[in-house]
Amino acid sequence: MIIRKIEEKDLEAVSAICMDSFLKSVAGTLSDEGITTFSNIAACDAFLDRMEGDNLILVAENDENIEGVIELKEGRHVAMLFIRPERQKNGIGRKLLLSSLNHARVETVTVSASLSSVTAYEKYGFECSDKVDESAGLVYQPMEIKLNKAMHATSA
To answer: CA–CA separation, 105 vs 138, rounded Å?
Structure first.
């Protein structure tokens, strides 16, 4: 498996992975507004706009198949971390996270974790930093990780 920067040819696969994972594990807990908001964020053209901006987007590729994606916004915030549903719990998320944290520009990296992903982020070393909140129909748990702790947690 290789971790590399996203390319334009990856956009359809990345969007599909995000939507598949979201629909399987998150969408059932959200309002129609939240589902629409996420669908807009995960659309190919939205990814294209962000990859041309100040967001680092990495993909995990295995035998020319995209298996996961992570997006680090402005070197400080994990905006997306999705793994193909049938490939979850195989260490792909951990590898993507570690690779993205190497590009962090702050000591504390944040994430607005969907409620179903809080346990996974805790395993990566993130801690809850505030109360559950909602924005544009998306319900999330603010979390953060100190980078010295992150490097230790993700290498374990």
So the answer is: 26
